Amino acid sequence: MSFVTFALYAEDKSRAQNNQWRIAENTLHSCELLGGWLGGLIAQKTLRHKTVKSSYQIVFWGIVGLHLVFWSDYLFLNGSGFAIVEEWISR
User: Fold this and answer.
1) What is the pTM of this model?
2) SS3 for 62?
3) Domain ranges across the chain
4) Exposure string for 30-63, b = 16+ CB within 10 A, e = fewer
5) Helix, strand and coil in the chain, % to nearest 5
6) Distances (CA, A) of 35 to 52, 53, 54, 74, 87
7) Are 86 and 45 within 8 A, CB to CB?
């Protein structure tokens, strides 16, 4: 998924430089959310694309944060962290 996300960033940058129809930010964010956030981060650094727009960066880093929380819980707490939150919410 990271490769797909990187490719979409590259395509969007190319389209931006050629004044063509752009790839929707929701599409880029969806790919990041589906696991391509690392490809998005690498694309941002290497292509210097989507690095200045603060509204984009807020959503991007929120997605990265969600992935870090999810995978930390899954790998180190065996998913019990989400069970505790779910129980607390249901009260």
Assistant:
1) 0.82
2) helix
3) 2-90
4) ebbbeebbbbbbebbeeeebbeeeeebeebbeeb
5) 80, 0, 20
6) 22, 22, 21, 15, 27
7) no
> If phi over 0 gives left and psi between -120 and 50 gives alpha, with beta otherwise, what is residue 24?
beta
- CA 24, 60, 90, 73 dihedral sign is positive
How many beta carbons lie within 10 A of that of residue 68, not counting itself?
Answer: 11
Per-residue tokens: 4? 């797909």
Model confidence pLDDT, tens digit, residues 19-76: 999 999 999 999 999 999 999 999 999 999 999 999 999 999 999 999 999 888 888 8
| Through-space distance between the first and last CA atoms of the chain, rounded to whole angstroms | 37
| Token pair of 58 as six digits | 């807020």
12: number of Cβ within 10 Å: 21
